[in-house]
Every structure is written in C-alpha cells, then in structure tokens.
Amino acid sequence: MTDHGSRTKATPADTRRPRSAKMMHRKLPFCLAIGLALGWATLACNFPRASSTADIERTIEAISQTLVAAASMAPATAKPSPTPPAGLAGAGLPAQRPTPYPAHPGPAYAYDARAGDTLDGLAGRFGVAAGQITSDLPLPTQGHLPAGQRLWIPHVLGSTSAAEILLPDSELLYSPAASDFDVRDFVDRAGGHLSRYRETREDGAELDGATIVQRVSAELSVNPRLLLALLEVRSHWLYGGPPDAAQGENPFGFDIPERSGLYQETKIAATQLNLAFYGWRAGTFTEIRFSNGESLRLDPRLNAGSAALLHFFALFSEPDAWEESLYAPGGFPTRYEQMFGSPWARAAAVEPLLAPHLAQPVLELPFSPGERWSLTAGPHQAWNYGTPRGALDFSPITGGLPCDVSPAWAAASAPGVVVRAVDNAVALDLDGDGREGTGWVLVYFHLAQEGLVVAGTRVETGQPLGHPSCEGGRSTGKHVHLARKYNGEWLAADGPLPFVLSGWRVVADEREYSGALVNGVQVVRSDSSGRVGSTITR
C-alpha cells in the first residue's frame, strides 16, 4: 500500500483527551475497500481464485465511489435517540467495566493474557516479534496463552487510542450472553419502525424486522443486542417512528448499490464487526480509519470486542465525533447499558468464552463410512469475509453435472440437536441444549433445500442432514461447507484448537482455499477440481 503522507493533528488539551493526538492522513485504503466489497457478498465456496485485472479495477472503482459518499454522511451522533419506553431500560445491574490501563506504560507493557490470546496475535497488536514477549512463567509457542498470565511486552508504538475497554467480547459474539435474549419480544415492545418493517427477498420470502436481525445474528454469529443498539444509533428504527426517505432502504447508512434493505445492511454491519474482532484476535487488524481518511492505531491492550466497536463507529465519523460518541458522558456504552442492562454483569457470568484447556470433541468426516469424497477446498472463511479461515469443503464423488444435487448425504459429524435449518444451512448443537450460541456448534452450508433436515431434530453421528448442492451463495460445484463455533466464536481450522475429523488434522496453506488433511504419513491435499490426491474415505 502506498503511503500518501502523514500529519499531526494538534488539539487543545482541555477539549480532547490524549487518545488520538496523532492521526495518519491517507486515502481510504485498498484493504478497507476490498473488505467492504467482500463483506457485501454472500458466502461463496469452490470459486476460482483468479480474477481478471479488469474485474478488480471495476470493483475498486465502485467501492471508492461508495466510500466517498459514506464519508459525507452525518456522524452517528447527529441526533439523539429517543428515550426507551418504560420497562425496556436495563435492569440496573451493577456495572463492572474494567479499570482503564495507564495511558503511559513506560518502556514495557505489563499485560495479563486474556482468553483467546496467542503469542502471534499479541506480537501483531503490540508491534513486536513473538520472541520479545516475556513472562516469569513458561510461554507456550503454540495454542492459547493461559488467561491471567502476566506478560512483559516492549513499548514500541507511538500514539494510540485510549486503552479503555468499552464492550466485553461476549457482547460482540452470539455467545451465551445472548442465549436468553428474545429479539422479537424486545422489538415488539419497543414499538418503533422495526416492529412494523417487512422486506421481500428475491426468492419471494417475506421477512419482518425481528426475523432479519435474529437470522443475521445466527448466520454471522454477532450478538443481536449489539446489532439492535447500533441500528438505533444509526437510524432510530427501534424506538422511533417511520424513517425519512434517506433511511428507508439503508438504515445503517452503508448505502451500497444493489445491497439495500435491512437484511443486506445488517449483514454488512455484522461483517464489519467480525472483520475487526477476528483481525484483532489474529493481530492483523491494528488500526481504524475514519470517514475523512485519517487513521488511528488502537491501543494493543484493548479486547477484541472493543476494537470491533471502535472500528464500526469510525466508518461513519470523523475523529472528534467518533470520540464524542464513544467516550463522552451519555455515549454509546451508556446508551447500551440503558437499553439492555449491564453487559459486564452478563460477561461475568459467561466469560471466558474459550475455557482453559478447551479441546475439540471427537468429530467424524461429514459423510458415511466407505463413501469416496473429495476435499475440494482447504481452510477458508468460516462464514463470510471477516471470519477466520475455519471452513473446509467436501464434494461427493457421485458424477453428474457439477451443480446437480447429489444423491449422497452430508452427515452429522457428532451427535447433537439441529438448532437451525434454513436457507441451505444447518447448525448442529453438540451440547444438546438447543442454543446456537453455547458450546460446540457445527455449521453446514450449501445443502439442498429439498431433503433438508428439520430444526429440532436430534441426530446421531452419521445421520443425514441434507444433500450437497450449489444452493446457497455461489458455488462452482456441489459440496458441503463445514465450519466450527465454540460459545459463538468462529474457530480457525489450523489454529490453537485444531480441526480434526476422523483422525485427520487440518493443515492450512498460505493461500486461502488451499491446504490438506494429514493423518500420520497419509496426506490428502485440497483441489477444487477433485483430482486424484484430494480423495478421502471415512
């Protein structure tokens, strides 16, 4: 990426806290443009990886025009939200927000590892090599770091954001913290435009506002409370009356051509939250960019949920308005607590989401013993852009045209309860409590609608879930897409919690969609065409 120069933005000390004294001025970057573009697309598997130069140039041109328009929008705090009706405000649970870290850490940060931290992720966030991170106790080179272990990390960064934790991770994810939240009940009692909203999809299905928010929450695994609160901040649809004309089709304000309506806009919002959350986890997302092109390095001691929230507000705000909307009295964190009660009390009851010594349960390959299938895609996005490389694609070797629905069945990899079976996707809850946001969940996609298992069905290992197809999203051949979640968090296939199926461990390649399954000396390599070498039998 070309650096277009930098400048220091001076602000009087009595009007601004020192969290953003230095901003880098540059054009909206290539990576953000592409991120937004891919975030709008539906999930696609088995796609050719090469794109023509002309296609890429057309995409960048379209995104640039959209981002210029977005940058001219009023900031998210342009007008106040209505007060929630009586009975809808939080229950008054005590706030337990962590005490902010010191603004000046000295020559080294004293950092206590959090659940989900890895050495590589921390190295990326703190701008150091993994070998520069030390501790009085041994540090594992692989896997998650022990939560609470004190680390010493050199302070090499310049000006950063504040280190104030604004949102627990469990309030960003569709986690156990959301397991008792009834979206429809809350929307109906709020009584605003969202409760009356209806939208007809291209397939003719009509969805109401509550259904859309709930579906996007489950599909992308983002907390419905957070989506509702952000929707209220952006358009006042939750408590307010009918929107004005400018908000009618773009309630979050992304205003993407051919991506209008609540369903598409909510998906874009959830995608952007995931982009920052999982990028922060991996140490690859370390700075936010504002609507005017300025950027700000995030304090490396933040948690992933706060990093995602800061990123979302920056998309629509210049630095001053962004700071006001998040840190001023009555800002978003206060508003969120008024709407839903203390997120810190809920977090105390469910976190850490990734428990110490967590191990994957025994999983089998997603088809019947003796059948021959191809590993047609190695690790790629678990659901859509912004999620980690957590999914594999398997295609049955049954002949016919590439997108004929296969007579073979995708099968349950473990016993569980089907908690969601809609739009060619099946979510299989392995702990059997009937909740998608708790414990281990397997997500299957691209299953034909005809013959799809019914939600609520209890299945044993090997029982059929649906027929592999090209249905759902876009695909170049019939297959099943398989990914994992734990407590609502998408998991990388070749990461701290290895993906193992029938004894075959997933190994990622540098390239997305490439990789292999390894079992002792046996290796099965992914190939989108299903050539020899990609065949696997359970």
Structural account:
It is a single chain. This protein is α+β, with helices and mostly antiparallel strands. Helix content is 25%, strand content 19%. The protein folds into 3 domains: 70-95 and 163-350; 108-154; 372-537, Glucose Permease (Domain IIA). The protein has helices spanning 30-40, 53-71, 119-126, 169-172, 183-190, 193-196, 209-220, 224-235, 262-282, 304-314, 319-327, 332-340, 343-350; strands spanning 24-25, 44-45, 108-112, 150-154, 198-200, 206-208, 287-289, 294-297, 372-381, 389-396, 410-411, 416-422, 425-429, 440-445, 458-459, 464-466, 474-475, 480-486, 489-490, 500-501, 504-508, 515-519, 522-525, 535-537. The strands form 7 sheets. Strands 9, 10, 12, 13, 14, 15, 18, 19 and 24 form a 9-stranded antiparallel β-sheet that branches. The protein is globular.
What would the average pLDDT be, to the nearest integer?
85
- Show unreliable segments: 1-42, 47-81, 89-95
**Tally of distinct domains:** 3
Structural class: alpha+beta
Could you tell me the strand content as a percent range? 15-25%
Oligomeric nature of the chains: single chain
Main β-sheet description: 9 strands, antiparallel
Please give the alpha-carbon distance between the first and last residues. Answer: 45 Å
Query: Radius of gyration over alpha carbons?
Result: 23 Å
Shape: globular
SS elements, strand count: 24
Bin the helical content. 25-40%
| Count of runs of 4 or more consecutive helical residues | 13
